[in-house]
C-alpha cells in the first residue's frame, strides 16, 4: 500500500483541516497514538482509493496549552539559542576547517546565554532589592504602595532577605518549568539506527536527543542564578568568607559552561559523562546553599538602616555584566565573520545566499540582548516611577530612586529605535506599492487584464519576505547603535542631565512595551485564537534543540522527530511506500526525518514538500544545517517533489530538479481565491505530484 503521511505547518492546525482540507463535511477522525492532542490521526473511511492517509499533528506542543502564552518572557533565551544554529561552519572540500575557532565561538555563545540569565535576574533584583527593599525605605512616597517604605524600615537586612525571595522564586519557577519540559522532550530516546556518520549534521542521532547536556546546562544556570542573588545580598552586608565562596562558585560555573563537554551531544564515555553531570549538579546545590546563607546570616545581627543611594554593589554588578556582554558579542562577531568568509556558499543563487553575509548569529544575539535589557529596564522604570523619581547616580536629585547608569541608554536609544522601525515599515510599504504597480510578464501572459491588479498585489506582498534580510540588518544596526551609545555615555562621564523630552519618551515607550507584552500574554492565555497566533513564533524558534540556554522554550523536534522515525519504520516494515508530505514548517521536519532514517529504509520513502521555507529561509539563516549540500543529500536520499506559489510569503523553490510552480489563483473566473500559503492539498497539482512519486 501507499501511505500519505501529512505533517502540518505553523499555527497549530487541527486534525480535520489536515485530513479533510476545504471540506464542509469532514469524515470521522480516528486517533492513533495521540497524547495530549499530539500524535497520529487517520480518516475513516479513507478518502482516496489505493492510499492510506494519515496526519501527524504537533501544534499542541507550541500553541495548545495556556502556559505557552508565558513563553513570551522567554523569547530572549530562545533567540540566543537560535543564534547557535545560525553560526556557519567553515566547510572546504566537504571538511570542516578552523574547528578550534568554531568551538571557541560555541563556548562564548554559551557564556553569553549565561549572561542573559544574569540580566533577567537583575530585572528582578533591581526592582525588589534595589528599589523596593533598599531605596524606598529612604524615599517617602504616597499612593497604594506607601506601606512598602515603612515596612521594617529600621531593619534593612530583613527587608532585603524577604525581597530576595521573589527573584529566587522566579528562578525556581524557571528551574521547575525547564526540568519538566526536559523530562517530556529532551529525554525522549531516538530510535536506534545507523544513518551515515559522515553526512550532514542533521543525520546525527544525538541532534534530537539532548538530555544529559541540557540537564547540565540547566544545573549551571540555576546555580549561577542563586549565586548572583546571594552576591547581591552579601554586598549590602559584606561577609568576606561568604563573598569568597560566592566568587569561587561563580567562577567554577563560568569555567564549566565554557567547557565543550558541558553541552556536547556526541556520545561521550559513560563514566566521564556521569562525573561531569554530578559536578554540575553539585554546583547547582552549592549556589542554592550560598543563597540560603546570604538570606539567613544577616538576620542574626542587629537591625540596620539603608544608606542613601543605590543598593551597594548593585550598579557595578550590572555594569560589569553589561561590558562582558559587549566583549562577548564583539568577539563572537569577529569569529563568525572569519568562519563565514571561509565557508563554501553552495547556494548557486544570489537571491538565496547566506543572510547578512553569514553574520545572522551575532545579529540575533544583539536582538536577544536588547529584548532582555528592555524588559529589565522597563520594569525598573515602572516601579521607580511608582515609588519616587527615577535618576542616575551622577545627578543629585533629591529623594530620587537611583538606577544604574547603564540604563541611561534607554532614554536615548528607545525613541531612536522606534523611529527606525517606523522608517523601516514605511520602506516596506513603498517597496510593496512599487512592486504591485509593475505587473510582471508572468502575470500578464497567464491572467486576463481584470485580474492583473489583484494578482500583482498578492505576489508583491509575498515577495516582501525576501526583504527580511534588510529588516533583520536594520534591527541589528539599531542594537549596535545602542551599544555604541551606552559606551559613550559610560566612558565619557556624562555630566549634563538628560533632556526631559528624551527621558519622558524613553520611559513611556519602555513602559508601554512591558505593559503591552503582559497584556498580550494575558490575552493569549485566555483566547485560543490569539494563543495560536503567538504560537507561530514558537513553531519557528523551538524547532531547534536547546544548545546554549536551558531556560528557552522546549524543542518540539525532540519529540516529533523520534515519533515520526518510529512511525515511518513501522509502516515500511509492513511493506508500505511512505510519502512524507510536509507543509511549511512540516517540510523542515520531514527533511530532518529523511536524513535520520536508516539508509536501508530510504528507498521505501518519498518526500513531497509544499509551501516550504527550506531554501528561502532556512538555507539562508542556518547555512550549516540547511545549505544546498544538505538539501542535495535529502534529494539523494529519496525522490522529492516541491510545490510553491509566487503568492506564498513563506514557501519557495528549492532546486530546479524537483520544483513545480503552482498557479495562484489557479485560473479565471475572477472570484478564484488566492490561497497564498495555505491549502496546497486542494490543488490538482498536489495530487499529481503525490501520484508521480509512487508511479514507476
TrEMBL record:
<feature type="transmembrane region" description="Helical">
    <location>
        <begin position="502"/>
        <end position="525"/>
    </location>
</feature>
<protein>
    <recommendedName>
        <fullName>Integral membrane protein</fullName>
    </recommendedName>
</protein>
<feature type="transmembrane region" description="Helical">
    <location>
        <begin position="275"/>
        <end position="300"/>
    </location>
</feature>
<dbReference type="InterPro" id="IPR029058">
    <property type="entry name" value="AB_hydrolase_fold"/>
</dbReference>
<feature type="transmembrane region" description="Helical">
    <location>
        <begin position="69"/>
        <end position="91"/>
    </location>
</feature>
<feature type="transmembrane region" description="Helical">
    <location>
        <begin position="361"/>
        <end position="387"/>
    </location>
</feature>
<feature type="transmembrane region" description="Helical">
    <location>
        <begin position="470"/>
        <end position="490"/>
    </location>
</feature>
<feature type="transmembrane region" description="Helical">
    <location>
        <begin position="407"/>
        <end position="430"/>
    </location>
</feature>
<feature type="transmembrane region" description="Helical">
    <location>
        <begin position="111"/>
        <end position="136"/>
    </location>
</feature>
<feature type="transmembrane region" description="Helical">
    <location>
        <begin position="156"/>
        <end position="177"/>
    </location>
</feature>
<keyword id="KW-1133">Transmembrane helix</keyword>
<feature type="transmembrane region" description="Helical">
    <location>
        <begin position="214"/>
        <end position="235"/>
    </location>
</feature>
<keyword id="KW-0812">Transmembrane</keyword>
<keyword id="KW-0472">Membrane</keyword>
<feature type="transmembrane region" description="Helical">
    <location>
        <begin position="241"/>
        <end position="263"/>
    </location>
</feature>
<feature type="transmembrane region" description="Helical">
    <location>
        <begin position="320"/>
        <end position="340"/>
    </location>
</feature>
Amino acid at each position: 500500500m501507499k501511505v500519505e503521511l501529512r505533517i502540518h505547518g505553523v499555527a497549530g492546525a487541527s486534525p480535520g483541516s489536515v485530513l479533510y482540507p476545504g471540506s464542509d463535511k469532514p469524515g470521522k477522525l480516528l486517533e492513533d497514538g495521540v497524547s495530549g492532542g499530539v500524535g497520529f490521526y487517520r480518516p475513516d473511511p479513507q478518502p482516496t482509493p489505493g492510499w492510506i492517509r494519515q496526519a501527524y499533528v504537533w501544534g499542541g506542543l507550541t500553541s495548545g496549552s495556556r502556559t505557552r502564552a508565558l513563553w513570551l518572557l522567554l523569547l530572549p533565551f530562545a533567540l540566543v539559542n537560535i543564534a547557535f544554529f545560525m553560526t556557519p561552519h567553515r566547510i572546504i572540500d566537504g571538511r570542516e576547517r578552523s574547528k578550534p575557532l568554531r568551538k571557541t565561538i560555541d563556548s562564548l555563545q554559551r557564556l553569553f546565554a549565561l549572561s542573559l540569565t544574569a540580566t533577567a535576574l537583575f530585572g528582578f533584583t533591581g526592582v525588589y532589592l534595589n528599589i523596593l527593599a533598599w531605596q524606598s525605605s529612604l524615599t517617602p512616597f504616597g499612593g497604594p504602595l506607601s506601606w512598602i517604605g515603612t515596612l521594617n524600615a529600621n531593619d534593612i537586612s530583613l527587608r532585603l532577605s524577604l525581597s530576595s525571595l521573589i527573584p529566587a522564586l522566579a528562578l525556581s519557577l524557571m528551574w521547575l518549568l525547564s526540568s519538566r519540559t526536559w523530562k517530556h522532550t529532551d529525554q525522549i530516546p531516538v530510535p536506534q539506527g545507523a544513518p551515515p556518520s559522515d553526512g550532514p549534521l542533521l543525520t546525527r542521532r544525538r541532534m534530537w536527543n539532548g538530555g544529559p547536556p541540557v540537564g547540565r546546562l540547566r544545573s549551571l544556570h540555576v546555580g549561577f542564578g542563586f549565586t548572583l542573588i546571594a552576591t547581591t545580598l552579601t554586598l549590602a552586608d559584606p561577609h568576606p568568607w561568604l563573598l569568597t565562596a560566592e566568587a569561587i562558585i561563580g567562577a567554577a560555573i563560568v569555567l564549566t559552561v565554557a567547557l565543550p563537554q558541558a553541552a556536547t551531544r556526541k556520545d561521550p564515555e559513560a563514566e566521564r559523562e556521569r562525573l561531569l553531570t554530578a559536578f554540575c549538579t553539585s554546583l547547582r546545590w552549592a549556589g542554592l546553599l550560598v543563597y540560603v546563607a546570604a538570606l539567613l546570616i544577616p538576620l542574626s545581627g542587629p537591625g540596620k538602616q539603608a544608606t542613601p543611594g543605590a543598593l551597594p554593589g548593585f550598579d557595578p554588578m550590572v555594569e560589569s555584566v553589561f561590558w562582558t556582554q559587549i566583549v562577548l558579542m564583539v568577539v563572537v562577531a569577529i569569529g563568525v565573520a572569519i568562519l563565514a568568509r571561509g565557508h563554501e556558499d553552495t547556494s548557486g543563487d544570489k537571491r538565496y545566499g547566506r543572510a547578512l553575509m553569514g553574520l545572522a548569529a551575532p545579529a540575533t544575539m544583539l536582538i536577544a540582548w536588547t529584548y532582555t535589557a528592555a524588559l529589565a529596564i522597563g520594569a525598573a522604570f515602572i516601579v521607580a516611577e511608582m515609588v519616587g523619581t527615577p535618576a542616575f547616580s551622577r545627578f543629585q536629585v533629591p529623594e530620587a530612586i537611583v538606577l544604574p547608569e547603564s540604563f541611561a541608554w534607554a532614554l536615548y536609544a528607545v525613541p531612536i529605535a522606534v523611529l527606525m522601525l517606523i522608517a523601516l515599515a514605511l520602506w516596506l510599504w513603498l517597496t510593496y506599492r512599487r512592486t504591485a504597480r509593475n505587473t510582471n510578464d508572468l502575470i500578464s501572459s497567464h491572467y486576463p487584464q481584470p485580474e492583473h491588479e489583484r494578482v500583482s498585489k498578492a505576489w508583491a506582498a509575498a515577495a516582501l519576505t525576501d526583504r527580511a534580510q534588510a529588516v533583520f540588518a536594520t534591527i541589528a544596526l539599531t542594537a549596535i547603535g545602542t551599544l555604541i551609545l551606552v559606551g559613550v555615555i559610560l566612558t565619557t562621564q556624562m555630566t549634563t542631565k538628560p533632556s526631559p523630552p528624551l527621558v519622558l519618551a524613553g520611559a513611556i515607550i519602555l513602559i508601554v512595551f512591558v505593559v503591552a507584552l503582559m497584556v498580550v500574554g494575558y490575552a493569549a492565555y485566555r483566547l485560543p485564537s490569539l494563543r495560536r497566533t503567538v504560537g507561530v513564533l514558537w513553531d519557528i524558534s523551538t524547532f531547534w534543540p536547546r544548545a546554549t540556554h536551558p531556560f528557552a522554550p522546549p524543542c518540539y523536534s525532540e519529540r516529533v522527530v523520534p515519533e515520526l522515525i518510529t512511525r515511518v519504520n513501522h509502516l515500511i516494515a509492513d511493506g508500505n511506500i511512505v510519502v512524507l508530505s510536509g507543509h511549511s514548517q512540516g517540510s523542515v521536519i520531514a527533511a530532518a526525518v529523511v536524513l535520520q532514517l536508516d539508509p536501508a529504509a530510504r528507498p521505501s520513502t518519498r518526500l513531497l514538500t509544499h509551501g516550504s521555507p527550506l531554501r528561502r529561509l532556512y538555507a539562508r539563516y542556518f547555512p550549516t544545517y540547511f545549505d544546498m549540500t544538505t538539501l542535495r543529500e535529502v534529494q539523494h536520499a529519496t525522490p522529492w517533489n516541491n510545490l510553491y506559489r509566487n503568492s506564498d510569503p513563506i514557501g519557495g523553490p528549492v532546486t530546479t530538479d524537483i520544483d513545480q510552480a503552482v498557479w495562484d489563483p489557479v485560473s479565471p473566473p475572477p472570484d478564484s481565491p488566492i490561497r497564498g500559503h495555505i491549502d496546497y492539498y486542494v490543488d490538482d497539482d498536489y495530487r499529481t505530484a503525490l501520484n508521480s512519486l509512487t508511479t514507476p
